Amino acid sequence: MYETLKTDLIASLSGTVLEIGAGTGRNFPHLSPGAEWIGLEPDRRLHAKLQASASRHARPNPRILPARAESIPLADESVDAVVSTVVLCSVDDQSTALAEVSRVLRPGGRLVFFEHVAAPRGTWTRRLQRAWAPFSRRFDRGCDPVRDTASAIERAEFAFVEFRRFAMPTGLGPTVPFIAGYARR
Ligand SMILES: C[S@@+](CC[C@H](N)C(=O)[O-])C[C@H]1O[C@@H](n2cnc3c(N)ncnc32)[C@H](O)[C@@H]1O
Questions:
Q1: Is 69 in the pocket of ligand 1 (CB under 6 A)?
Q2: Which residues are within 8 A (CB) of 48 and not within 5 positions of it... i.e. 6 or more apart?
């Protein structure tokens, strides 16, 4: 069900699609064949895998930008859509990154997101997230599990935001709160 949510969000995109924090290219299977993909990935150690994944999915010459979402090396209003899956937990500055996403999107373009977020205050999940945060920040590429990413997106420069919340099973007992949806510029 959760993979279907992500698939539907990404598959709906067309034109020039910028994926921030593209990682090893796990989203290529969801992308429409007609979309022109640009990947932004600051960790150069992942570029070879990203390149290989692109080739496996019929994208032999992908444009990969070694940059952070806080400073996107693209012109204003130059892309039709932006994809962010499990990235806004890791960026150094969410509001700067979201301002950059809004800047590069053409008017009417969409940011689609699929992100884990902080559990409500006072819950056991939130306590677990807070206890885990120092480790994930240090050992999981800066990932901060206690971010209120939904509010950050709602505060950013988008005309309309729609998303749903759900609990992703981990198989270990506690679930992880997620949001999935889109923000229109
Ligand atoms: C958990 S991985 C997710 C990768 C991919 N989006 C996925 O769903 O499989 C987080 C990614 O965000 C990238 N990242 C970390 N800080 C970033 C930043 N400031 N701007 C853009 N990407 C960043 C990491 O290098 C990593 O590839």
A1: yes
A2: none
Q: Is 117 in the pocket of ligand 1 (CB under 6 A)?
A: no
The Cα 4–Cα 8 span in angstroms is 6
Domain range summary for the chain, segments of one domain joined by +: 2-184
User: What would the two tokens of residue 24 be?
Assistant: 């090893």
Q: Tens of pLDDT along the chain (185 residues)?
A: 677 889 999 999 999 999 999 999 999 999 999 999 999 999 999 999 999 999 999 999 999 999 999 999 999 999 999 999 999 999 999 999 999 999 999 999 999 999 999 999 999 889 989 988 888 888 887 899 999 999 999 999 999 999 999 998 887 778 899 999 999 99
Report the separation in Å between the CA atom of 46 and the middle of ligand 1, taken as the mean of its atom positions: 10
Q: What is the CATH number of domain 2-184?
A: 3.40.50.150
Q: Is the CB of 98 under 6 A from ligand 1?
A: no
